[in-house]
Amino acid sequence: MKVSAPFEPAIVAGAMEPMLAFYQGVLGMQLFSLDEIPAQPARAAGLSPQGYAIARLQTEGGDRLKIVVPQQPATPGARGDFVMQRHGFAYLTFIVPDVRAVIAALRGAGATVRTGAEPVAFRPGVVDLAFAEDPEGNCVEFVQRNDLATYRPHRAGGGA
Q1: Which of 66, 88, 110 lies at the terminal end of a domain, its last residue?
Q2: 33 and 100 share a domain?
Q3: Dihedral (Cα; 67, 69, 75, 77), 10-degree rounding
Q4: Are 53 and 69 in contact (CB under 8 A)?
Q5: pLDDT for 101-159, tens place per residue?
Q6: Which of 64, 88, 112 is at the close of a domain?
């Protein structure tokens, strides 16, 4: 499969404001757009029986994350007929240059850092990581890779 742009994962959430406060305020993502989608196209696409709000956030590296809040709330753990009747995801990974700085920002904002005050040396000298929770309890992973040029050569060199 050939793609035109990086992934844009979406998180189905119960409330927009706390999620924006976390992803914008704590993690520093920029709000790209905030839209209301009416029920008819939401139903036609199999997303939601009602309309929904969608926020698109972007990192400095151009990666995007969508936060969607359906008018008819999702039930955590449920698997309905519509995409937005499912809640959450397994976890989202951000590759960061300084995982310790991210942990400090998370702890300073009162976020739950599941791995504690120090990163886990997952592969000592190569990969350090931390897991935290967003305001709705979704797991977010932060990985510092000291071999980024090998792992993601197109990103490490600044190219597309």
Answers
A1: 88
A2: no
A3: -10
A4: yes
A5: 999 999 999 999 999 999 999 888 889 999 999 998 888 989 999 888 888 887 555 44
A6: 88
Q: Do 130 and 103 form a contact (C-beta atoms < 8 A)?
A: yes
Residue 37: closest CA among 20, 22, 57, 52? 52
For the entire predicted model, the pTM comes to 0.81
Q: What are phi and psi of 109, to 5 degrees?
A: -90, 0
Same domain flag for 59 and 134: no
Indicate whether 29 and 41 sit together in one domain: yes
Q: What is the C-alpha separation between 156 and 33, in angstroms, rounded?
A: 27
Helical (H) or strand (E) element with 92: strand 91-95
Give the domain range for residue 149.
90-160
Scored b (16 or more CB within 10 A) or e, 97-109 reads eebeebbebbeee
Gap between the Cα atoms of 51 and 91, Å rounded: 25
CA distances from 108 to 1, 24, 26, 92, 122 (A): 41, 15, 9, 21, 24
